[in-house]
Design a protein that fits this description.
The complex is a heterodimer of chains A (521) and B (144). By secondary structure, chain A is of the alpha+beta class. In chain A, 34% of the residues lie in helices and 18% in strands. Chain A is built from 16 helices and 19 strands. In chain A, strand 11 and strand 12 form a beta hairpin. In chain A, helix 1 crosses helix 2, helix 3 packs parallel to helix 7 and helix 5 packs across helix 6. Chain B has 144 residues and is mainly α. Chain B starts with a helix and ends in a 5-residue tail after the last helix. The chains are: A alpha+beta (521), B mainly alpha (144).
């Protein structure tokens, strides 16, 4: 439906009373999804994909490979959303490198790890889907041109009981996104349009089936607005028919100042997050409007490995997750003591950090380690961290303690105990799972130099979203059955990871479910 | 945009040779649009463009006479002089070594819209800053 038509109808309902003023509020407060009779289609495709991140591109690539004409609508000017600014870490349970390096993994172990981090409320059938198909989808992305650092010992991410993560060639998701976008654009009839914002789903006249979308092209996202979704009026209207259906892959809402605050009032509008500016709830809310079933919306994961000394995602997540946290420690600066398993799942760690930060908001816990703690995959990031000042290097623990005002004697005692336990093969007080192979070795090398990063949790991944089944069909809250013509994948869906997702499982989830959507549409 | 290159080339000759002939009244495609000091202040030009004595309609070609109704000229407009995005990426090739070439970044390659960062009539922005708040000052100068 055009904005004009919608407003006119709403104005009629209001009996022309103050139509001018009512039009604005009516189109926002009373809008219903337009139906076929309300619109005139400008263009026609087989499949329309909303969003160009991992999920959207996997869906588009698979659907396009099957011969469908695919249109991808991307709201932002850049392709890939959060997927091009992330760390390119992809958990592939039972992958080839695990076998090569003698790491035993299984579907059951993967699901057990995910359930532990997710507080048991995960939708297990979705975890099974990911475990069953991650390797196949990994291979599909390689076929599309994605590049990974294979042939190396997989990276061990927090909360995983074994190392099962493969990192992209350039330590960024862009090594997957760029070639996959090119793969789709090369196929006949397929198109990726940036600065194109989906406004509404278009329903069949009986309201049962999604048959297209209305959108605005030449849309200019404005990060100065409090709510871009509501306030931004830029762009020119287009209506697209989707003969086979629409795949919603619009991502999460960790940058939606209002919506995330409603879900978790502790997240103030000015709170920094790891996401790109466009990660807002607009498209998710449109899916709810046509009956999509919401699940786990208020679980917003915060990344415990971010730093207050840089904006956004930055470089700290690489240097802590694949560095300081692995063999190093993280201490409360007020007493020099450890306070968590540095390799626990994200929620466990963020909760522990908040125990400190809610008592003293400036007492950012400091992660400390020596060079041996860094994974080979992220060596290139070390210099970047030091140059930008996010990570600091000290010759002695005394200098480090003085810089962060940590009681030096207590810090040394903490590290001595930590090193001794690992060396003797004794499980430490927080049951850290990455120290098993450190028997007889020094976790933190006392000769130094010592690397340190101040840490703070930042909103990272919104766990909730629309409910999908294992065919990536969106389930309706009105019927508990799939909504015809509507599929979804990636962060816009919910349930899969429960209360908190394990690190490096987003790429697995997005790519697998996107692929499945493209396969089933 | 077709005539812009010609205009630019012409502009160079005029600047070099017959400076005095270039006045705001010389504006074949839009005789009505007078570039007043107020207009200049409202829609300031970047110094490198100012130096070339650009008129509004050199960029806002075929958009009428009213600057208030002018539209952004998009990549096509910028590239009618600045060649291609690959050309711009290659000019900063020396930055590729440290993966800091803003026109060929690890994330986007040579694909971003010019006006993600560059704005003619207001302060430019640097998109890299949204994640690399500490690094950008080490990597590059302010965005022109």
């Amino acid at each position: 439906m055009s904005q004009e038509k919608m407003s006119r109808r709403d104005a009629l309902k209001l009996g022309f009373v103050g139509a001018g003023a009512a039009m604005l509020s009516a189109s926002q407060a009373m809008a219903a999804a337009p139906t076929e009779k309300d619109v005139k289609f400008d263009e026609e495709y087989d499949v329309i994909v909303i969003g160009s991140g991992f999920a959207g591109l996997a869906a588009a690539a698979k659907a396009a490979e099957r011969g469908y004409k695919v249109l991808i609508l991307e709201k932002m000017g850049r392709v890939g959303g959060n997927s091009v600014i992330n760390g390119g870490a992809f958990a592939v349970p039972m992958n080839k490198d695990q076998k090569a390096f003698g790491i035993e993994d299984s579907k059951a172990l993967f699901i057990k790890d995910a359930l532990k981090a997710g507080l048991g409320i995960n939708h297990v059938e979705m975890l099974e889907l990911i475990a069953d198909r991650a390797q196949e989808v990994f291979d599909f992305t390689v076929k599309c041109g994605a590049k990974y650092q294979t042939g190396k010992k997989p990276t061990h991410f927090g909360g995983h009981s074994v190392a099962r993560t493969i990192v992209t060639e350039n330590m960024s998701g862009s090594a997957i996104i760029q070639p996959m976008a090119a793969f789709v654009e090369k196929l006949p009839g397929c198109k990726l349009v940036t600065r194109a914002k989906m406004d509404d789903f278009v329903m069949s006249n009986d309201g049962t089936t999604v048959i297209g979308v209305t959108a605005r092209i030449n849309y200019r996202f404005d990060n100065k607005l409090y709510s871009d979704d509501i306030e931004n009026k830029s762009g020119e209207k287009k209506v697209y028919r989707a003969k086979k259906g629409v795949i919603l892959a619009s991502g999460g809402f960790a940058m939606d100042k209002e919506y995330r605050k409603i879900q978790d009032p502790r997240m103030a509008p000015d709170m920094d997050a790891t996401n790109h500016d466009g990660a807002t709830a607009g498209a998710l809310l449109k899916a709810f409007q046509i009956g999509a079933l919401p699940v786990h919306i208020s679980w917003i994961q915060e990344g415990p490995w971010a730093s207050p000394d840089e904006r956004g995602f930055g470089v700290a997540p690489l240097l802590t997750q694949q560095g300081l946290f692995v063999k190093g420690v993280c201490v409360d600066i007020r007493n020099g003591k450890r306070f968590m398993n540095e390799m626990a799942d994200r929620k466990t760690r963020a909760d522990a950090q908040y125990v400190i930060l809610r008592e003293d908001p400036k007492a950012y816990p400091v992660a400390i380690g020596t060079y041996n703690t860094f994974d080979e995959q992220i060596y290139a990031a070390i210099e970047k961290g030091l140059q930008g000042g996010v990570m600091k290097k000290f010759d002695t623990l005394d200098a480090l303690a003085a810089n962060y005002k940590i009681p030096a004697a207590a810090l040394k005692e903490t590290i001595a105990k930590y090193n001794e336990d690992a060396k003797n093969g004794v499980e430490d007080q927080f049951k850290k799972q990455t120290l098993k192979d450190m028997k007889g070795k020094e976790c933190i090398e006392m000769k130094g130099p010592f690397y340190a990063i101040r840490t703070v949790p930042k909103p990272h991944h919104t766990m909730g979203g629309v409910k999908i089944n294992t065919k990536a069909q969106v389930i309706s809250a009105n019927t508990n059955k799939p909504i015809a013509g509507l599929f979804a994948a990636g962060e816009v869906t919910g349930g899969t990871h429960g209360a908190s997702r394990l690190g490096s499982c987003a790429i697995a989830d997005c790519l697998v479910c996107g692929f499945v959507a493209g396969e089933n549409i | 945009m077709r005539s812009k290159k010609t205009l630019l080339a012409l502009g160079f000759f005029l600047i070099l040779g017959v400076m005095s002939l270039v006045g705001s009244e010389v504006n074949a495609s839009s005789p009505q649009l007078k570039i007043t000091p107020e207009l200049k202040e409202k829609f300031t030009l970047k110094p490198h463009h100012e130096k070339l004595s650009f008129k509004c309609v050199d960029c806002h070609e075929g958009q009428g006479d009213d600057p208030e109704n002018f539209k952004a000229i998009d990549d096509k407009g910028c590239l009618s002089c600045h060649k291609t995005k690959q050309y711009l990426a290659d000019r900063l090739k020396f930055m590729d070594n440290l993966h800091t070439n803003p026109h060929n970044s690890i994330h986007d390659g040579p694909k971003l819209y010019c006006d993600e960062c560059h704005f003619e009539h207001k302060k430019s922005d640097n998109m890299c800053l949204s994640c690399h708040s500490n690094d950008v000052k080490l990597w590059m100068r302010p965005t022109p």
